[in-house]
């Protein structure tokens, strides 16, 4: 049960909340970012035939005990990360940026799959205009900075702009947003007529390509392709960030259309116009121009000055030989932006939020304006850039608290905006909150195209907290609730709010800073009273299900084993031997035994190891499938390094199970859930965060092999890449 929680912090920016796909909630508060991870989870096993554990949150738990709360500083930089810059000319240098406290200005989680263990990367923009990536490091989960995006911009512009001052200005970042993951087609499966039942799609197909949109201090919008490259314990410099496309907004007119264009004031304001908000729409498939070529288009909306600018980002995916691919990017001004002038009448202030569903025929853009909200509806043709008629493009407006005279009653800017997806009805609900505490919701798709009159339960809970604050401080009903952030996760909505007096000057110390987090259902149709819960996760631990998952692992290993991969690769030899033994001991698919026999024969020819017992069991000459421990002569003889040996008593280890290992003297060890190798020490493991299955930590293995001047090998790396999450439940790993 997610009860409201009160934290000792004060938000420092609009949209201060961001909820990752892994369930981690980030809050930007001054010099710190607070990370909340749900904690109170208990596993209860049903007494049924399948023995299925159910993971559910515990009930009647204090709010502060429902989360693991940690925080880290974001305003501490080394001289290499943020070098000292001497004053430049006034057009390219801002003393305010240099003297800022580098507090949090914006933050957002990436789509899953970019960070280590395929988790989400946290991007944090600070007031010194640096955009940093953060990841947890080590068993304690210490959050560290792993990349600075500004360095990639500086490298890109260094070959174009020789002047340091202008290049420094173009390297500063004003706003950013993540694209939804661009998932490429499965080239291996679609391009081959022979289907391997044990093949696994590539990471680009499962997780997609991660793209980032940023706006710099010179009003350039840049698209960046991000990849995590480093695979060791050292996380610094572990990201590859490359600029793919750039478009400049400086030459476009109409950033402040309400002023006289030829006046000195207009010229001064134009030079200070900045991109304050940026948002990326969904990917729209395009018709394929040739065989093996796939195209996708996404819209990018920005608020430049007081106007809304829309651009089209086009990606073309081309398959090449040996299952490789090539990506081509282009960023151009949206055709709709030049064809329709109606939305130019509004004073856009941001933020921006796209609303869409998979089966809807329209895409909606919600944009904050002065005193209200404007929603722009794109038909599929208009969104794809094939704008034809005015009926493909519609604009509706909503002024907050409109009075009888037609004037807005709430002038505060929008500080929070998010959408919640209802998977049952395939609808999205837009939640909006202002700095003055005004709340608005909208349902998409909605035939009436009017704001929904229903008040979400998080707004009702916020009103209860405001009334309590008013009574505690005897404010006579003049207490004000300021909404700082809204975030959604699997149909849940979290709201961050602070309480203030409305008729006096407020003074508070850091000790008295309080921020309330409120949770509720984000869907208006099933918005019930009470506290919401996290979605239930069911993990199947039945023996048949686990055996099926293990078969998928060693089936892939045995089908991919080739003699060339085994000649000099020690770790791949050990992996193929363990997979062959697992097929003999644990497998029920007799079709894999010839593959195991072939792999064992290749190992015997290459290493000289005595594998007659294993080969005979593949043929079926013996009644028992158990493989006896190797003798001392076999362990020290040719190819003995592929056999498992007890680290305690130096005796051989038998093969009787794919989950446990037992030596001759009775020492019991657990086997890795992926490689089936014996784990002799607890410090070399990683675990699934859901089902707690134990795995070998490949980072420690890579570090040890790098010191010896070798690596883990092609097949070993292939298996680690194919099964980068828990094989048995799909959970993320934790070190």
UniProtKB/TrEMBL annotation:
<dbReference type="InterPro" id="IPR024761">
    <property type="entry name" value="TFIIIC_delta_N"/>
</dbReference>
<dbReference type="InterPro" id="IPR044230">
    <property type="entry name" value="GTF3C4"/>
</dbReference>
<dbReference type="GO" id="GO:0004402">
    <property type="term" value="F:histone acetyltransferase activity"/>
</dbReference>
<dbReference type="GO" id="GO:0000127">
    <property type="term" value="C:transcription factor TFIIIC complex"/>
</dbReference>
<feature type="domain" description="Transcription factor IIIC putative zinc-finger">
    <location>
        <begin position="634"/>
        <end position="733"/>
    </location>
</feature>
<dbReference type="Pfam" id="PF12657">
    <property type="entry name" value="TFIIIC_delta"/>
</dbReference>
<protein>
    <recommendedName>
        <fullName>Transcription factor IIIC putative zinc-finger domain-containing protein</fullName>
    </recommendedName>
</protein>
<dbReference type="GO" id="GO:0006384">
    <property type="term" value="P:transcription initiation at RNA polymerase III promoter"/>
</dbReference>
<dbReference type="Pfam" id="PF12660">
    <property type="entry name" value="zf-TFIIIC"/>
</dbReference>
<feature type="domain" description="Transcription factor IIIC 90kDa subunit N-terminal">
    <location>
        <begin position="19"/>
        <end position="520"/>
    </location>
</feature>
<dbReference type="InterPro" id="IPR024764">
    <property type="entry name" value="TFIIIC_Znf"/>
</dbReference>
